[in-house]
Amino acid sequence: MEKFVSIERAIEIARQTPPQSSIETIPIQESLGRILAEDISSKVDDPAFDNSAMDGWAVRSQDKTRIEIGQTSAGEAPTKIGPGEAIRIMTGAPIPDGADAIVMIEDGLQGEARPHFIRRQGENLRAGKVALSKGQQMTPAAISLAATMGHHTIPVRTKLRVAVISTGDELVQPGLELSAGQIYESNSYGLCALLEKIGCEPILYDVVQDSLDGLRKTLDSCDCDLIITSGGVSMGDRDFVRKLMEEEGQIHFWKVAMRPGGPPLFGTWNGTPLFGLPGNPVSSHLVFQLVVAPWIAPEIQLFKTIQVKMLDAVNGAPNKVCFRRIKISNENGIMVARTHTHQGSGNIHSMVAHNGLTILPPNTNASIGDRIEALWFND
Ligand code: AMP
Ligand code: MG
For residue 91, which of 11, 72, 142, 300 sits 20 to 30 Å off, Cα-Cα? Predict the structure, then answer.
C-alpha cells in the first residue's frame, strides 16, 4: 500500500486495476452521456450533394438577365438550366446542372449572384472521415452528427455498475425527521448524479451503520463493477471502511495530498475495485471529480484549467494541493476569482455558490491580485 500520494499517482495506482467494461451497440437516441467504444466514420459525404443554403434562384453567374423556368425544393432530384435561365430554389434543394450561384429571394431575380450560398458536396465531411472518436462522451450535437453520418446505432462502453454506499450512524435519509445528533445523508445523492453524468449506472444502497459486521455484509452483497463508499476512512476508531479494508480487503493507496479530500483509499474487496471516499460532502465530491472520474473515464473533462486573477486572498495547505472554492467570472476581458462562502469541507453549499477551484500548490497562499491556476467547472 502507498500512503499519502499525489493526485496523479493516485490515479496511476488505481489504473493498475482498470474498470471492467465491455462494448454494446445501442440506438443513438439512447446514447446521451455514453462513452464511444470505437471511432465512428461517416458513411456519406456531408452535404451529400451541392445544394442551396438559401431560398432564392439557382442561376449562372455570367448571365446579365434571367428568366424563371421552374422551381425545385428539398427532396427533389436535380434539374438543369441553360443560358439566361433561372430556377426558383428552396433551402436544401439540389443545385440544378449548369447553375453556379444563388440569388437571394430578398434581392429579386435580377439581383447579385452569390456562389458562396451553394453548400458544396462534402464540404463538412467526406465519406470515411472519422468525426467521432473512441472515448468521447455522446453529447446532443454528437448524437446529431452520428445520424448525419448515417449511423442509427453506435458502439458504446457498457455502463459501469457502481454501488454507492454511505456509512455513518448519524445519517438519516432526507425527508425523514432528524433526532438530536443526526444529519441528512447527502453524499450518495451527489455521487449518484456525478456517476450518471459520466455515463455510469449508480446503484444506491441504504446507509450502513458504523459497524464492521454491517459493512462486511453490505460489501459482500454487492454485485457490481465498482464500489464507492463515503465516510469512515480516516484515523478514528469508528472509521470502519479503512479498518475493514485493512484487515480483510486490499488497499492500494490511502491518503492523497489534497485538501479538501485527504483520506480517500482505493483497493479491492473480493476482487471488486473500491474507492473509499471521505465523509465530508465537499471532500467526497472533489475526490470523485479529481480521482474517481479520471479512473472511470479519462477522456471526460469535468473542468478546464485556466489562469485567474484573485480578487480575494485564500490560504493554501501544508504539504497538500489546496482546492478553495472560487467564483470565476470575466471582468473586462480578465478572468477573475472571488470567494463567497465558508470554505469548510463540510459545506456543500460552497460547491453550488462557486464555479471553480483554486489549484494552490502545497505550502502556498494566494494574495489579492495574484494570478494562479484554477479549475473551471464546465457547467
Ligand atoms: P467521516 O469521514 O465518516 O469521519 O465523516 C466526516 C464528516 O462527514 C462527518 O461530519 C460526517 O457526519 C459527515 N458525513 C459522513 N457521511 C456523510 C454523508 N453521507 N452525507 C453527509 N455528511 C456525511
Ligand atoms: Mg463516519
Answer: 142
Ligand nearest to the CA of 185: 1
Which of 167, 183, 243 to probe ligand 1 with, by most ligand atoms within 8 A of CB?
A: 183
State pLDDT tens for residues 145-186. 999 999 999 999 999 999 999 999 999 999 999 999 999 999
In the chain, residues under CATH classification 2.40.340.10 are 303-377
Helix (H) or strand (E) holding 140: helix 140-148
Query: If we measure between CA atoms, which residue out of 169, 136, 177, 176 comes closest to residue 31?
Result: 136
Cell of 94: 439540389
From the CA of 284, the nearest ligand is 1
CB of 281 closer than 6 A to ligand 1? yes
Whether 341 shows a pLDDT value over 90: the answer reads no
From CA 295, how far away is CA 284, in angstroms rounded? 15
Task: Evaluate if residue 379 carries a pLDDT over 90.
Answer: no
Q: From the CB of 166, is ligand 1 less than 6 Å away?
A: yes
Nearest to 43 by CA among 129, 144, 103: 129
CATH class of 23-45+124-157: alpha beta
Q: Which residue has the cell 463515503?
A: 230
Pick the CATH number of 51-112 from 3.30.930.10, 3.40.190.10, 1.10.1840.10, 2.170.190.11: 2.170.190.11
Fold of domain 303-377 = Beta-clip (2.40.340)
Residues facing residue 159 across a β-bridge: none
Average model confidence (pLDDT) across the chain: 97
> Each residue of 295-337: pLDDT tens digit?
999 999 899 999 999 999 999 999 999 999 999 999 999 999 9
Give residue-wise pLDDT tens across range 218-248: 999 999 999 999 999 998 889 999 999 999 9
Return the ligand number nearest the Cα of 229.
1
